[in-house]
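Progress note, project year one: complex with zinc ion.
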Amino acid sequence: MARPAGYCVNLYSFFDVGAVQRIYLCNLTPEEYVATEAHRQVRPEEICPICGECDCLQSHGTYDRGITQKTGLVDSMCVARFLCVETGRTVSYLPSFALSYRLVQAATFEAFLEGRLDRRDVQRWTELLRQYSRQMGVFGAELLRVVGGGFGRAPPASSSLWPYLKEACGSVAAATRRLVTQFNITLFARYQCHQPATAT
Ligand SMILES: [Zn+2]
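Model obtained:
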């Protein structure tokens, strides 16, 4: 059910110790994901990202988090979670339209970065999107240091981070997924839940 903008959603209920978060390619919009209960279709990777074994991941329910819709209104979505029976730790699979620990969907943040300030979703969340942008700027130097030449070309100054990521990855969603999958970071920070299991 859609809720008015500004509805307070607990984004942090999934900070359970040792939990791992993955971002999987999802071509649905948040609205489609919620309407079709797409979290029920999520299957874990064959190789467990926690222990490296096969066949150890069991369905472990879901957790709820907020996600903004195209209109900018906030909806609640379920994220699929699995339990590694070898370690007792959980792994969750966040669809790629969502940003880790952030309420506003990737496409709206991208529109903001593109200067499309007339869009309704951007207007609803302008202050929060400015905050996202600032966080991305602060983390930019670290991001470029980690990525290095990994995107096939020399990284620019952190002030031109978004054009660089756009050229390399195509979108905020694709950049985020690639950063998490290949480099264990997001656009904004390094989170423990994205680190390789062997490093924890
Ligand atoms: Zn496992």
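The chain is about 30% helix and 15% strand.
The chain has two domains: 20-98, 106-183.
No further modelling is planned for this target in the current period.
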